[in-house]
Amino acid sequence: MPTYITTHTGGTPTTRAASLLSTALSQLDPSSPAYSTLVEAHSLVAGEETYIERNTSELIVPAGHAVLEQEVREVWDELLRGTTETDWKAVKDREETTFELGAGMCSGPYEAVVLQNFALMQGAKTVLEIGVFTGTATLALALLPSVTQVVALDIEPFLESFNTPYWTRAGVSSKIDLRIAPALESLAKLKQEGHEGFDLVFIDADKPSYRTYVEQVLELGLLKENGVILVDNTLYKGYPWVPPASTDQSTYAKSNRTNNKSKSEATKGIDDFNTYVRSHPDLETAVLPIRDGITVIRRRI
Ligand SMILES: C[S@@+](CC[C@H](N)C(=O)[O-])C[C@H]1O[C@@H](n2cnc3c(N)ncnc32)[C@H](O)[C@@H]1O
Questions:
Q1: 183 lines ligand 1 (CB under 6 A)
Q2: Which atom of ligand 1 is nearest to the CA of 134?
Q3: Which intervals of the chain are annotated as region Disordered (predicted)?
Q4: Is 70 exceeded by the pLDDT of residue 6?
C-alpha cells in the first residue's frame, strides 16, 4: 500500500480520506471483490496533492531581487527544513512559546506559490497576515516586487527570533513589519496609527476567532476598497461535514495545548465562519479546495 507523502505535513480533507482508505485496506482481505476498487480510490486520493505539487512552479523569486535566486532558494529550503525539524513540543516545554506550535501549521511551499499568484494577479502592494508561524507565506509574499509592506501578526515572541534571520538572508526583512501581540490588539493599533488599509489580508491564526478577524478588519477600515481577504483552513480537514468517527471522538473533543483548544472547537469556529461570510450582505465569497481550503472574500461590486 503506498503511504501518502507530500512535502507538507498539515492535514487536509484529501490526506484524511487517503488515511481512512489506507486503514480500510489494511483490514480487508486482498481477495475480497472491493479490494481493487478501494486500492484505486486510495491511489486517486493519495496521489492528488503530490501530483498537484509536482506540476506547480517552485517559489517565485523575481529576477531583479536584491539577493541571488540561488541564495533565496537555499534560505527557503532551510526555513522549510527548520520548520519541520524543530521539536515544537520541546520549545513549548521550555516555555519559549505559550502554545504548542507544530510543523503542520505551516502553509507550505505549494500554498506559498498559490498566495504569490493571488498577490500578483491582484497587484497587491500592502499585505496583512494574521498568524505567521515560521513566516514562509510572509517571505513568499514579501519577495514580490509589487509588495511594499507585509504587516505580520503573531502572538508568540519566540517566532521573532526564529523567523528574522531567514527573512534577513532572503533580503525581505525591510518589507516585513512583525508585530507580536494578540492579533486583535495589533489590529486596533494599526487603526490608531491611521493605517490606510491593505490590498490583501491573509487570515491563518486561531480558528475560533476567524469571524472576529474579518469583522474587525472591515470595521477598522483595514481592507482597501478593492481589497481581498484570503482565509486558510476553511475546509478544516472535512470536519465541518464529516466529523471523525465515534472512535476518534475523544481526541477530537479533548482540549489541547494550542490556542484552538480542541479540534471540535476549531471545527465549530470554521463552520460558523463559513456560514457568516456566505450570508454577509456586503461580501462575496468563494471557497476553493486548495489544500485545507482557501476562501476568497471581497466586497460586493
Ligand atoms: C497556522 S499558523 C500560521 C501559518 C502561516 N500563516 C503560514 O503560512 O505558514 C497559526 C499562527 O497563528 C498564531 N496565533 C494564534 N492565535 C493568535 C492570536 N490570537 N493572535 C496572533 N497570532 C495568533 C500562532 O502563534 C501561529 O503561529
A1: yes
A2: 9
A3: 247-266
A4: no
